[in-house]
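Study this chain:
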Amino acid sequence: MDTLRGAGRHAWHALADLAGDVRFAVRSLSRARSFTIVAVLSLALGIGINTALLAFVDATMFRPVPGVTGADRIVEVLLTRAGGDIQEWAYPDFQDVRAEETPLDVLAGWKMRRGTLGTGESAQTVRVMYVSAGYFDLLGVKLARGRDFVPSEDVGPGQHPVAIVSHALWRDQLGGGADVVGGAVTLNRTPYTVIGVAPESFRGHRSLEPPPDLWVPIVQIPFLSGQQSYQDNRDALWLNVLGRLREDAGADQATAALRIIFGRLAQLHPASNRDRGARAVLFGPVPALNRAGDMAAAAAVLALAGLVLLVICGNIAGMTLARGVSRVREMAVRMALGASSGRLVRQLMADALVLAGTGGGIGVLLAYWATSIAASTAFVGFPNLDLRPSWMMLLGSVALVLVAALAVGLLPAFRCSRPEVLASVTRDPGSGGPRVGRLHRIAASAQTALALMFLVTCGLFVRALDRMDGRALGFEPHNLLIVDLDLSTQGYNTVEQGQAFLDRVRESVASLPGVTSIAYADGIPLDLVGNSTDVSRADRQDETAGRVQVEFTRVADGFFRTVGTPLLRGRGIERADTPTAGRVVVITKPLADRMWPGEEALGRQLRLTLGRDEPQPHTVVGIVGVVASSRPTEDWPHVFVPLLQHYDRPRFVLAVRQAGDAATITKAIQSAVLAVDPRFPAPTVVASESLVEQSMRPQRTTAGAAGALGLLALLLSASGVYGVVRFAVDSRTRELGVRIAMGATQGQILRGVLRDAVRLAIPGMFAGGAMAIGIAALMRSMLLGVEPMDPIALAVATGVLLLVVLLASQGPALRASRINAIDALRHE
C-alpha cells in the first residue's frame, strides 16, 4: 500500500513538474513572438498537409466499401495476356468459365454505362450498371425492397427489361413510395419494370466512382443486341468480372483453376484465346488492376509530405538553435543553481511540445477544413468516399505532433544542455555557445533541394503550357459549339436509322439564325476521347513493315469547313462517300511525309483496320495540315475516314459553327433536336474553347500544385538558411570581432557570410536539380516535348533560389558586418 502511495505521489509530482514546464514554455515563447508565430504556422502547415493526406488515403484505400459484406471472400478476376493484365473479358469466355466448377461460388459480370431516364425535356442522364444474376448476392447486399435478378434473366439479349433502382433514385426521383416495386421507369426509350430497391448503405462497389442510379440485367446492354452483337465475339473485351470464393478456398486456388480452364479455351479457340488467362485478386476499395501502382503513388505522396514536415521540423530546430544561443547563459545559471542536464532537456522539450501541440491543433483544423471543402466540391458526386475525420486520422495527427516535437526539440535540447557547452560559456562568455553542426547544415541543404525540385518541376510545366498555348491546333475553336448526341440509347443503331435521324437534326439546326456551318463526327481534336489504330502502305505485302500508329476520327461531309481545318491538297469527306462507294481517307501532312517521303500521297492507298473489320486499303483523297490529337500530351499523325463507311458506334458530336451569341443559341439547338424527336434527351452543348481549356487542365493543375509547393519550399529554404546563418553569426561573434579588430572591412565580412550561405545551398541545389530531372523524366508524357533537362527552366529556378538564399542571408550578414569589435573582445 505504501508503495502504491509513493508511486502515486511520484506520478503526481511528475505531472505537476510537466505542467510547470509547459507554463514556463508558454511564457518564454510568448516573449519571442516572431519566432513562435513562424514556428507554429510552419508546423500547422506541415501537420495539416500530412493529416489531410492521411485522411484521403484512409478513405480511399483502407476503409471498407459501404454496404459490402464479406469482402475477405470477394475477388476481382483480371484477364491476363502477353501484354499485361486488363480488367475486361470477352462475354463468351465469361459464360464458359461460369459454367465450370471452380473455387468461386459466384461469378458475376458488370459494366457501367450512361443511359437516359425518361423522355423529352424531362429526360436525364443516369449511370446504369449492367450486371449478371448473382451480383448483389456476391457482394453480400440485401435489397431494401423487392427481389434480386434471377439466372433466367441472364439469357435472351434485350428480353428482360427489369431494373433495380438505387435508394437515392427511389427517394428523389420516384417519390419514395412503397408501391415502387412493380412500377415502371423509361430507360433508353424502353419501359423497365422495377423489381427492387437497393439499400441506402449500398452505392456501388467502387469508392472512387460516382454511384449507379440503377442496375439492369447484363443481357440488356446494347453490346449484346443488334447486327454487331458481342454475344459470341471472343475478340471484344468489355466485361468486368467479380467472384466470391468458397469458404474453404483462397485466391491462389481460384487462379489455378482459372488457368486450367483458359488452357482448354486456348485449345478450342486459338485465334482469340491463345495468350489469355485469368487470375483472382482480393477485392478492396482500390481497383485490383492498378492497385500496386496506386498504393505506391500514395506511399510516395505521403513520403513526400512527411519529408516536407521533417524539413519544416529541421528548419524550426535550426531556428531554435539560433534562439538558444541567447539562452545558453540562462541554462548555465540554472545548472549552477543545481538543475540537472535532464531537467534542462525536459524544459527545452516542453518548448518543442508546446510549439508542436499548438501547430498540430491548428493543422488538424486546417485538414478538417480542407477535406470538408474537397468533399463538398471535387468529390461531391462520390458518396462512397467518406472524408470525415476517423480514428486513424486523429491517431496519425497525434503521432505527427509527437514526431514533430521530438524533431524540433531533441537536437537543440541536447546541444544547449550539454555540461561542457554550458561550462565553456561560464568560463568564456564570448564563445557564443554551440557551433553549427553537420546535421543542421544537411537540414538546410535538404530544404534548398526540395525548393529547387519543385521550382524546376513548376518551370517545366509552365514551359509545356506555353508550348501548348502557342502551338497550331489545326482547327478554329472560336465560335464552334459541340453538341453531344448519343444514339445508342435511343434506338438508332443501324446506319439507315442513324443517317435518317442525323439528316433531320442537321436540317433543323442549320435553319437556326446565326448558324453558318454544321457537320457530324465521332470526336474533335482535344476532346480527351480519341481512337487509335495502325496504318501501313497497301502496296507492301508485309503488313507489319512501316506500320505507324495513328489517331482516327469518323467524320461526315462539311467537317473540315465547319471546324476550320484547311485542306492543303485534294478534297474532304463528301456525301458520296457511302458504304457502297470506294474506301477513302483524308490524312495529315506529317503522316503523308512519313509514309511517302518526297512523293505525292494523293491517290496512294493506306491499309488500316477500324473496329472489327478486316484490314482494308483506303485511298488518300485529301491532305490537311497538322491537327491536334485528342489529348494535348500526344502528337500522333491523324486520319479522317467517312462516318457512313464506318458506322461502328452510334455516338456522335454535332459541330456547329455560329456567328451569334453562344448562350442564346444553345437553348435553340436543344429545341431543334427535340423538334425532330421529342423523346430524345436534351443534348449537352458546350463551346469548343472550353473543351480545349479542359484538355489542358491536368497540366495547369500540376503546374499550379508544383508552383505552390515550390513557393512553400522556397519560404522554408529561406527561413532555414536564415536560421543557419544567424546561428553561425551569433556563435562566431568573438571571431568576427577579432577579424574586424585586425582590419577586416564591413564589405569583407558581409561577402564572407553571404559566400558561406551560398556554399550551404549548393549541395542542395545539385540534389534538387537531379530529383527534378528524374521526376520530369517520369512525367515526360505530360510535358509535350519539353526536355527534363530544359536549360531555361533549370536556369530560372536556380537563379530564383540563389536570389532567395542571398536575401535570406542579408540580415545576418549585415548584423555580422556591424559587430562592434570592442564589445566582442571585452571579455578577452
